[in-house]
Amino acid sequence: MTETADSTVRAALPSEEAGIERLYSSELANETEFLAARTRSVGSRRANEELASLDLKVRSYSVLSLACSGLNPSQRELAEFLFLDPSQIVALVDSLEKRGAVKRKADPRDRRSNIITPTAAGKKLYAEAAAVVQAAGEGALSALTPEERDQLRDLLRRVAFADQQG
Q1: CB-based contact 116:93 (threshold 8 Å)
Q2: Which of 102, 112, 126, 165 sits at 20 to 30 Å (Cα–Cα) from 95?
Q3: Residue 83 domain-assigned?
Q4: Which pLDDT tens digit goes with each residue over 34-61?
Q5: Domain count across the chain
Q6: φ/ψ (deg, to 5) at 105
Q7: How many CA within 13 A on the CB side of residue 45?
Q8: Residue 15 and residue 13: Cα distance in Å, rounded?
Q9: Contacts made by residues 20-26, CB under 8 angstroms, sequence distance 24+
Q10: Can you say how many angstroms the Cα of residue 69 is from the centroid of all Cα atoms in its chain?
Q11: d(CA 24, CA 22)
Q12: Is residue 93 part of a domain?
């Protein structure tokens, strides 16, 4: 076999590396959209694991966080901001309401709409959950320096809200 034919055969054979490590050199592993999606999945998985002790997940935590923000978000605003279907928001609010963490109130800006506000129990739950999420986030970003973490957050904020900037 010639040297060229031999290298062609070797290139066609599966890599001797086992596991997903061999995929790290793929073109996909360098695509921005994939990296953003994978990073989100890694962070959400870690946060969900940590939030499980409080019987919360990232989505319910997000609704609770916004309810506790003092901004009085409507269900419609929650759906739009979190990129969730309104029916998903209804289910999340229902679940938090059953726990006594939030309540619905008529929106003074639009009586056909509800705003979501926290209860005292919801504020307490949010304080505990925020600490858990903060720790999970720091763990997920442990490969970065504090300055790099701040820079990453700034860059992500710019990308996430680019369509909202004038």
Answers
A1: yes
A2: 112
A3: yes
A4: 999 998 998 899 999 999 999 999 999 9
A5: 1
A6: -135, 150
A7: 7
A8: 6
A9: none
A10: 18
A11: 6
A12: yes
